[in-house]
Amino acid sequence: MRIASYNINGVTSRLPILLRWLEEFEPDVVGLQELKTTDEKFPASEIRAAGYDVIWHGQKSWNGVALLSRVGEPVETRRGLPGDPDRNQSRYIEAAVCGVLVGNMYAPNGNPWPGPKFDYKLAWLERLQAHAQDLLDSKAPAILIGDYNVIPTDEDVYKPENWKKDALFAPEAKQAYAELVAQGWTDAIRKLHPDERIYTFWHYWRNSFARDAGIRIDHALLSPALAKGLKAAGVDRTPRGWDKTSDHAPMWVEVEV
Fold it and tell me: Which residues are listed under the site Transition state stabilizer (predicted)?
């Protein structure tokens, strides 16, 4: 099964990009983030016409997550993290697909740091850790994909010194991600490519993509039951080079289920 994560940065405006990528890359399951549209305006019919069942949780102008599947209808198990006091923010959706629990997230950015938005980010990541532990305790094959808005290490950023004052690279955020992985999750990219500089996001300005001046903030964490079937992982940089595209590229994993 090929499972991908794609921060589409506006599903309505980037719908032609998404449909083209789905046709060319042919992922089995996709987690989309940053839909930036309401539930009513989500382009479900176009996505279904492309061969994908879909569930989604939208929000006007901001956030929003969706799960697409062409290998069986996703059976929703959760939207929103347990204990989240702000149900208006559409940041997490989870479903069972072909016996795999897929949690798809768009974590808070947290800037400016320090400040209330960063405090909210850390609290959200703490709730994610608690739910992730519950998933591990269930022993079910599970994957947590999405835009974590965390640069885990210096190897995940083009120039670490340029991000020292950014919430994505803050010590507390990196520590939260490290603690999450330490529960027993496998970072698919780092498991298979331990020493490569692999990025998933490049700013639109200063020719960042052409210079490969990027960061890795989109991740796939696999539970032990699923990690034993990990076959491949990477980033499909192709759509990042298209016109009017997202500033993210899709990252993906292939697992034997």
Answer: 149
List the structure tokens of 69. 């599947």
Report the length, in residues, of the chain: 257
Q: CB–CB of 174/238 below 8 Å?
A: no
Would you say 248 is a known binding-site residue? yes
Is 147 labelled a binding residue?
Answer: yes
Would you state the pLDDT for residue 84?
87
Determine contact, residues 88/59, Cβ cutoff 8 Å: yes
Name the β-bridge partners of 76: 95
Question: According to the annotation, is 195 in a ligand binding site?
Answer: no
Report the distance separating Cα 117 and Cα 108, nearest Å. Answer: 8
Q: What CATH number has the domain bearing residue 148?
A: 3.60.10.10
Average pLDDT for consecutive 10-residue bins of the chain (257 residues)? 98 98 98 98 98 97 97 97 87 97 98 96 98 98 98 97 97 98 98 97 97 98 98 98 98 96
Name residue 38's amino acid.
Answer: T
Q: Number of structural domains, the chain?
A: 1
Residue positions annotated with a catalytic role:
106, 147, 248
Is residue 256 annotated as involved in ligand binding?
no
Which domain does 146 fall in, by range?
2-255
Side-chain-facing half-sphere of 30: CA atoms under 13 Å: 26
